[in-house]
Structure formats: structure tokens, C-alpha cells
Specification:
transcription regulation, transcription, flat, Tetracycline Repressor, domain 2, mainly alpha, 234 residues, Repressor_TetR_C, single chain, Tet_transcr_reg_TetR-rel_C_sf, HTH-type_TetR-like_transc_reg
């Protein structure tokens, strides 16, 4: 584990080390993370810098370094703050209902904080809250005939679907949706060339204007898991 990863682990998982010199600490990691989230929500992840966060908190950049070594660790703290606590595990609903609620709450997180799509790419250290999201999926599928790796793969599959829809939504214009914008752009062309694309023209003509890609894909993923679970458990 590299030095950067070690620092992220220390900040996310361990009690934060107190500054070894200087005046009594006037900041906290929570305040620093919240300031970073505020900037990213308003201007995007690229706008976040140690200087800008320090300015928002009315501190100097150098004083910020007494708490957070650099931007990579700052972003790790921001992700942990933005994802929040995972959905509560409950005994009542079945695994399917729990995973559906999980996916929809994750979708809301990406909608509220679109920059999370950029900040949660590739191998990286996760905090206890974010790792708790993975724990919820693995727990919901426990005892249903799936191996540990299959339960983790299910979490990856669900996350990938939610991320894909969130990416499309982020690219859409404010107030619009990927499906309606695609219909507006391609509908006239497909209609004009309906003899060349008859199946596509018929499908587009039957669209009801609802943006249901998230729910449709989610239900098909859960259907597939249900088939596998039924096969394993009889």
C-alpha cells in the first residue's frame, strides 16, 4: 500500500492524528469534507482545490495541510461524506426489495452529487460508510445459494447499471432526460427513414415519454438473480 493510500486509511478509518504543532485545532475533517462537497456540488470535482476549500473555510491553505495531506485524501473524505450511510438492513422485505431500494438510493446519491461519478473510479481506499453499501448487498443475498464472489459481483452489476444511467442523466440538459432528448433528436430522422428502420420506428412511435431505463434495467437484473437463486435453492 502506497503512502497516499496509507494516509487515506488513516483519515477514513482511524482517529485523526492531531496536529503536532501550532495552535489548538480549529478545524475538523468533517468541516473540511463538507466544504469540499459544497464546492463540488456547485462547480464540479475539477473546481475543488486545497486553496479553494481553505478560502471557503476562511483559513489559509497551509493551515489546511495540517489536517489533510493533499487533494487525493481530501476527495476521499468528500466521497465518504457525500455517500452517507447505506440503506438500513431490515428483516422484513426479501432480498429483491432490499436490492431495489439500495439501487434507487444509490441513484439519488449520484443525482444529488454528480461529481461522485468521477471520484469513485478505479482502485482506491473506501471509507466505512461506502464499504457499508457493499456490505448491504452481500448481506441481503446471504443464504440464497450464491457464493461470496457472486454476491459481490451482484453489487458490481447493480452499481454499474445505476452509474450508467446516472452518467446519461448528467449529460442531459437541465430538466431533461436521456430518453426524451434521444427521442427528440432521433425521432424525426427515424420517422423520415422508417422504411430503412421499421422496427426502430415502430418502437419509438410507441414510446410514452416516461424515463424508465433505471427501473427497467434494475428489474431485469433482479429477474436474472432470481432465476439463479431459484436454480441453486430449488
Amino acid at each position: 500500500m502506497g503512502e497516499e493510500a496509507n494516509e487515506a486509511v488513516r483519515l477514513l478509518w482511524g482517529p485523526p492524528a492531531k496536529p503536532s504543532r501550532g495552535p489548538k485545532p480549529a478545524l475538523s475533517l468533517a468541516r473540511i469534507a463538507a466544504a469540499g462537497v459544497e464546492i463540488a456540488d456547485a462547480e464540479g470535482l475539477g473546481a475543488v482545490s486545497m486553496q479553494k476549500v481553505a478560502g471557503l473555510l476562511d483559513f489559509t491553505k497551509m493551515s489546511l495541510y495540517r489536517y489533510v495531506p493533499g487533494k487525493a485524501e481530501l476527495v476521499a473524505l468528500m466521497v465518504e461524506a457525500a455517500v452517507g450511510e447505506p440503506p438500513q438492513a431490515v428483516d422484513g422485505p426479501g432480498w429483491r426489495e432490499q436490492l431495489a431500494a439500495w439501487a434507487k438510493q444509490l441513484a439519488r446519491s449520484f443525482t444529488e452529487h454528480p461529481w461522485l461519478l468521477d471520484a469513485t473510479v478505479g482502485p482506491r481506499v473506501m471509507g466505512p460508510k461506502e464499504l457499508g453499501w457493499l456490505e448491504r448487498v452481500v448481506t441481503a443475498l446471504d443464504g440464497h445459494g450464491l457464493s461470496g464472489s457472486e454476491r459481490m459481483d451482484a453489487a458490481v452489476l447493480l452499481t454499474g447499471h445505476v452509474r450508467g444511467i446516472a452518467e446519461q442523466a448528467r449529460a442531459a440538459r437541465p430538466g431533461g432526460s436521456p430518453e426524451t432528448e434521444l427521442l427528440a433528436l432521433l425521432g424525426p430522422l427515424v420517422h423520415q427513414h422508417a422504411d430503412r428502420f421499421p422496427a426502430l420506428a415502430a418502437a419509438m412511435a410507441s414510446q410514452d415519454g416516461r424515463d424508465q431505463a433505471l427501473d427497467f434495467g434494475l428489474e431485469r437484473i433482479l429477474d436474472g438473480l432470481e432465476v439463479l437463486i431459484t436454480r441453486r435453492t430449488g
